[in-house]
Amino acid sequence: MRKDYDFSNAKRGAPVQAPGKTRITIMLDDDVLSFFRDRAESEGVGYQTMINAALKQSLSKKAKGQEPLTVAKLREVLRQELNAA
Fold this sequence. Notes:
Blueprint: H1 30-43, H2 47-63, H3 71-84
């Protein structure tokens, strides 16, 4: 099977960047990550996409004059979501 691979024109390098996105490293609580992974699997979407959507939703609330998003508030909301599931 390996003889079928042709890497003669391959190039080393980072994966292609998605426009409008930045690759970062982030530390999340295990229960938060587990929640999003489980929910994403059941809904058939990526867990990172779901985390991004939750953060965007929080930002849109801030833009509408609601309370600002803090680390404590984000954890509170995520724990509420985990308990509701």
